[in-house]
Amino acid sequence: MADDCFAHPRLAAVYDPLHSGRADLDAYLGMAEEFGARRVLDIGCGTGVFALLLAGRGIEVVGVDPAGASLDVARAKPGGERVRWIHGDATGLPPLRADLATMTGNVAQAVVDPHAWRETLRGAREALRPGGRLVFETRDPARRGWAEWTREQSYFVTEVPGAGTVEYWVELTEVSGPLVTFRQSYAFGADGQVLTSDSTLRFRERAEVERDLLAQGYVVEEVRDAPDRPGRELVFVARRP
């Protein structure tokens, strides 16, 4: 089930204005070019920012996401008709023979259940052609990034076209082993409504991720650093033999 920040229509509509400046996607665009990808599966595509960037380069893209409200936003964007949008997850995809499958924006961490994680990796592998690659990022747990998830460090106000002013902040609510839970709050100036969205992420160690990939039949080619967040992210490049 998708979190409210993606599944609630009012929150999905303001997601992009509140999370603009996606410099993290530059590295993924570069890897699509590096690997000569002509068909890409974007797992957890959300509002379609990355999928549409790829489609704008003439790449055939399939975007899959469990949040219908986010997909509605994606479909309505200019160029939305160029992408094949699927409401669901990576565990029940049709045959695709993709050159590249991606999970950007720490989507991998949102799959917290171990069985669901294994099934996600399996589904992505089946969607790839032999030699195709899965690329995704996850926060390095050693950096304890959740310590910065406070109202004081996250609060801002922005003017959203068509929605008015929106106040936004994040608060950490629980850390239990590898699971980190936090709450995002949205205060709409237009009518005073305050909406919240609770999310839990799993912080996996590098060795754990590599074991999971090997167990699902991948070859782990390398683990890169995220150029926009040096020392904070692990970017896995795995190949279907």
From TrEMBL:
Keyword Lyase: no
Limits of the Methyltransferase domain: 40-132
Single GO molecular function: methyltransferase activity
Source organism, top-level taxon: Bacteria
Pfam short name (any one): Methyltransf_25
Gene3D superfamilies: Vaccinia Virus protein VP39
BP term (GO), one: methylation
Keyword flag Secreted: no
PANTHER family with a match to the protein in the record: METHYLTRANSFERASE, UBIQUINONE BIOSYNTHESIS O-METHYLTRANSFERASE, MITOCHONDRIAL
Protein name according to UniProt: Class I SAM-dependent methyltransferase
Organism: Streptomyces lavenduligriseus
Organismal lineage: Bacteria, Bacillati, Actinomycetota, Actinomycetes, Kitasatosporales
